[in-house]
Every structure is written in C-alpha cells, then in structure tokens.
Design goal:
With 144 residues, the chain is mainly α. It is built from 6 helices and no strands. α2 crosses α6 and α5 crosses α6.
Length: 144
C-alpha cells in the first residue's frame, strides 16, 4: 500500500512537472493583439538587419530586461520570468502562430509594447535599427 501511494505521488508530480514545462510551448497561441497602424505592419527591414547583433540584444543587452528572460533562450516562451505572465509570452517556435505575425508587426510590438500582456515598450532603450536586428534574429532562428 505504501509503495503504491508513493508511486502514485511520484507519477502525479512527474506529470505536473512535465505539463508545466511544456505549458509555455503551447501552439498555436490564440491572441487578439492589435494590428500595427498603417503601413508599419507591412514593412520589413530585416534584409539590412544584423542577426548577430539581434542575438546579443535578445540574450543580454535589451533593457529593462533581455528578451530571453520571458521568451526563453529557445524562443518558445519558456523564459524564467515568462512563466509568471498571463498571457504567456509569444512562442516564436510555433509556425502556426508566427505565420500570422509579420516582421512589421513584430517591430511595432517590440517598439511599443503590447497592451494586456507583459510585453513592455523598448522605444526608449533600443534604436529602430536594433529592433530590426532583433526581429531578424528571432525570425531567422526560431520561426520555422
């Protein structure tokens, strides 16, 4: 009886741990994010952007905190701080979700934040060129 109880507790604990690990990777992610105004959503300046610089910003340089703190180093929305956010951060590895998010929309959200989420504005801390670098890094690394 004791062994069965201990085994049951261990199985339940394992299932909870596994489900919370994969919770951030939900795909597709339903969102009602407001579209970028005007032609910004259709704009794409990633051709001239620097993905290597975008990686530095994504992993460490962005202020007030690095993108990876919420979106995760793997871009799956599973960063340490992101686990506490509702809704969870965008899962860049979800092709079904990211197919609906243009480069211009990403630029707009990084620059201005996203109301109703934990995504803060970076217009005071990142230059437009740096934002495009981050967009290129995300789209060339995580979006498949």
């Amino acid at each position: 009886m004791k062994k069965a109880l201990i085994l049951s507790v261990m199985v339940i604990f394992s299932l909870v741990a596994v489900s919370s690990t994969f919770a951030a990777a939900k795909c597709p992610q339903p969102r009602k994010t407001k579209a970028a105004p005007g032609a910004i959503g259709k704009k794409d300046m990633t051709a001239k952007a620097d993905a290597a610089n975008g990686k530095k910003i994504y992993l460490k340089k962005a202020k007030p905190m690095a993108c990876s703190m919420c979106h995760g180093k793997k871009g799956d929305g599973g960063g340490k701080l992101g686990k506490a956010l509702k809704p969870t951060p965008r899962n860049f590895t979800c092709a079904a979700t990211m197919a609906k998010v243009s480069a211009g929309q990403m630029f707009h959200i990084i620059k201005n934040g996203s109301k109703g989420t934990g995504m803060v504005a970076h217009k005071k801390t990142l230059k437009d060129k740096e934002i495009w670098d981050v967009v290129k890094y995300i789209r060339s690394t995580f979006v498949k």
